[in-house]
Prior knowledge:
Helices cover 72% and strands 2% of the residues. It has helices at 2-7, 18-52, 55-87, 110-113, 120-123, 125-129, 134-139, 143-157, 162-186, 190-205, 214-240, 244-250, 252-261, 264-278, 283-296, 299-315, 322-338, 345-357, 368-396; strands at 12-13, 16-17, 91-92, 95-96. The chain has a two-stranded antiparallel ribbon. Strands 3-4 form a two-stranded antiparallel sheet. Strand 1 and strand 2 (16-17) form a beta hairpin. Helix 2 runs antiparallel to helix 9 (162-186).
Amino acid sequence: MITGHLTGMDGSLFGLRFYDIYTFLGTLFLNALKMLIVPLILSSIITGVAGIGDSGSMGRLGGKTLLYYMITSLFAILVGLLLVNLVAPGIVDGEPARHIIPLPDDGMDIQTRVEGRGLGDVVEVFLRMVPPNIVSAAAEGKMLGLIFFSLLFGYFMTRIEGSLSRTLYDFWQGVFAVMMKITEWIMLFAPIGVFALVAKVVASTGFDAFVPLLAFFLTVLGALAVHFLVTLPLILAVVARVNPVRHYYAMIPALLTAFSTASSSATLPVTMECVEKQAGVSNRTTSFVLPLGATVNMDGTALYECVAAMFIAQAFGLELGFAEQFTVVLIALLTSIGVAGIPAASLVAITIILTAIGLPVEAVGLILAVDRILDMCRTSVNIFSDSCGAVVIGRLEGEQDILQQPASRPADA
Length: 413
C-alpha cells in the first residue's frame, strides 16, 4: 500500500511505469489462480460426492451446508444493519450527506450498468444451475452450472458397474491431487502477486477518496470486523468446539489472497489447500462445502449491500421504518446468493435494494470511490466464512482431528 501510494500511476523507472509492472505481475498471478478453478471444482466435487456414498449422507451434508450459509449470512446482515443505524454515516451535522458527497462523473452511468437487472436475477439462479452446454459454462466461468453438473456426475458415478466406477474415481482423484500440487507451486509466488495487486489498487485510487466517505468506509469495516472477529469465531468455538485462533493462523495465505484478488472463486484453490492441510478438514467435506461456498456464500457481500443501501437512504434523507429495513435485510440475503455469479454483483444487488425502497439507482455513485478497497475486505470475510463452514460441517459429521494441533507454519505463503 505504501509503495503504491508513493509511486502512483505516473512513477516510472527507465521509462517503465511502476503501475504497468504492478498490473503485469498482479494479472499474471490472478490468471494462474483462475486457470485452476474449473479442473479443481470438477475434480474436488466429483471425488467428494463419490466419497460420500449413499444419497442420505449427501442430503444430510448438503442440508447442513446450506443451513450454515443462510444463518451466517443473516447474522452478517443484522450486524451491518445494527452498526449503520448506530453510526448513521449518511447523516452529517444532522443533515443528509448527499450534498457533501457529490455523485462522481460516472454516477449517471449506473443506469446503463445495471439495465435489465432486477429481482428476476435471483430467480434465474435456478436456470444458471442447469447450463445447456457444460463446456461453454466452464469457459464462461458459470460456476453454479459447473457445480450442479459435478454433483450429478459424482453421484451417478457411484451408481454404475463397480470396475468402471473405480476407474473413474481413480482418474478424478488423480486430477485433484495434481491440481493441489499446482496450487502449492503457484502459491510460491503469492507474496509477489499480492504485493502487485494491492499496490496497483492504491496507486490508482489513492487515499483522497476516503475523506468524504470516511464514516461510511469505517462503518463497513467495523461491521465486517465484528462478523470476522466475533460472530464467526463464536460459531467455531460454540458449534464446532475448536480453537478459533488456530483457524485464523491456518487461513492466513487464503485471507491474503482473497484480499488482493477480491475474488472468492480465484481464491478457492488456496482456500481448499489451507482448510485441508492446515486446518485438517477431510477432503470429503472440503470438496463439497468450499466450491459451493465460493459461489453462493457471501457473508461480507450481504453485509456490505445492507450497509450501503442504508447509507444511501440516510444520505438522501429517507427515513426507513421496520418494514423497509426488513425488506433491505431480506433482499440482501436473497441477492447475496442469487446475484453473486453475475458481473458487478454487489452493484446490481444494491440497485435492486434501492429500487425496492424507492431510491434512484444513480445513488450508487455515492459509494463507487471506495468500493474497490471494501470489495477486497468483504471478499476476505466471504472466504473465511466458507472455511469456517467447512470446519463446522466437518465437526458435525464426526471428524475429530480438525484444528486439534497448532497449524504448521504456512511456509512460502
